[in-house]
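Hi D.,

Good news: the full-assembly prediction came through. Inputs first.
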Amino acid sequence: MTRSPNGTPPAIELRGLTKAFGPTIALDHVDLVVQPGVVFGFLGRNGAGKTTALRILAGLARPTAGAARVLGHDVTGASEAVRQRMGFLPDVPGFYPWMTARECLEFAGRLFELDSATVSTRADALLDMAGLASVSTRIGGFSRGMKQRLGIAQALINVPSLLMLDEPTSALDPIGRKEVLDMIASLRGRTTVFFSTHILADVERVCDAVAILERGRVVASAGIAELTARATAKAIVVELENDRDTAMVASVLAGKNWLKALDTRDRSLHMTVSDLAAAQREIPAAIVATGAPLRRFEIDEASLEDVFVELVEGDDR
Amino acid sequence: MTGFAAFLRKELTEIRRTWRLWVIPGMLVFFGVTSPIIAAITPAMVKSMTASQKGMVVRLPPPTALEAFAQFIKNLDQFILVAIIIAGAGVISGERSSGTAILVLTKPLSRGAFVVTKILAQVFLVITATALGTAACLVVTSMIFTVVTVAPLAAAVALWLLYAALLVVVMTLFSAAFKSRGASAGAGLGFYFLTLLLSNWAPAARYSFLGLVPAMGEALTGRALSLGWPVATAIVAIVGGIASAVAIFERQEL
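Then the structure:
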């Protein structure tokens, strides 16, 4: 078992995790380590295998091969010990429609055998956080967004060491989404948050680290900054004084082996380059050689979206 | 068994707050009230139906409290057992399809405790409802007839409850095994009619729980019954059914 630098086991550790449904391989030898206390985004397209991985981690499904450890416990062996310390929100949370939100949270708290004073205090705080404190109607009449917020609240009733959320923001309006993301960010350092999503902006906004899952395989796993720095393709924009200068510089640069794409418009060259260092040397040289006056030279940092598209499209090829 | 008490409390609250409170208890009280009345008016009804047919003379003995009890047991044996089958068909498959099983089973409650709690709550409902229905039957019967003793009724109801508990376990097993409520209801009805048919076969009735079905009627007559095998095999079937339901549910992926 892997251990973090301070000796505690990882919050999540997957080793060669494989899950097959008949001939369909949903997870294909997935290796992943999530350190305690981080907010970790599990990113992938619909059908990439995110929900299957979360179901295995939550003890709802069994792996075909490989191992899944949660908070140092094998999920197939010590499931009750694991469940005591985790919170889980499925992609479509199911509730008893005859309960109120408060009753649901109190029921969830009692399942952990918390004392009634603790349950009551936490239910108050979580209802407030979920924006449901003043709602007295039964859950059967809730919107999907309200159910999603209640789902997150019930997953926090035991103050879990690990909170696993499957697409927590997918059903929320922009304000609800912001509130949930703020709440997730506020847990950083206290609770490990592992959430799956296909919304890149959510990951960029709150995650410390991310793994990208594509067709059941982890194609990248690193910190956000490290991952974006890894992007092989960079965008460079050069703005000159006029279109004639732009055409001249473009003709000098054409054919360079590091130049992946070149587009000229509005006195500017928009380039995608595979070797940033070479481009940084040779583009200024080309401008000097043509004698064109330079207005702007800009290197665009790759976004998570660029990395995601690059990795996923690379996998498609 | 972490969470067992909380889940049992939820089950009992659910009975109180949903349709489940009204179906089986409502039917039992209804039959408790109407069975003595039907027993009382049956001779008059038969007489009026045959009055227009010349030459036919029907002589029926005056109705008794025993006939009221027999009518009540007959209704339990037919309508209430079918209601238990219908109500029990979705007891686990319903929680699975609505996603509530995931809500509960990602907390410390074990799958075994989940299944056992479901059975306990249903049996509690059936026992309570049967007590209410039997009490209603006794009250109305005593208002219409002279009740000499309640012992035969108590014996017949106790045998029926044992059979009903077995059916609850069987339905929980089917509900764990089948994905849809319809499939488990179909299997339950198949089980019910098969046991009804086989209970007419003397060796099966003597040496298995199938003997509980004819024994209910015999208990009302006050005759001494040999119930060792039927009761013992019913208890074994209940324990085996619970173990099987737990084993099946533990292997399932949610």
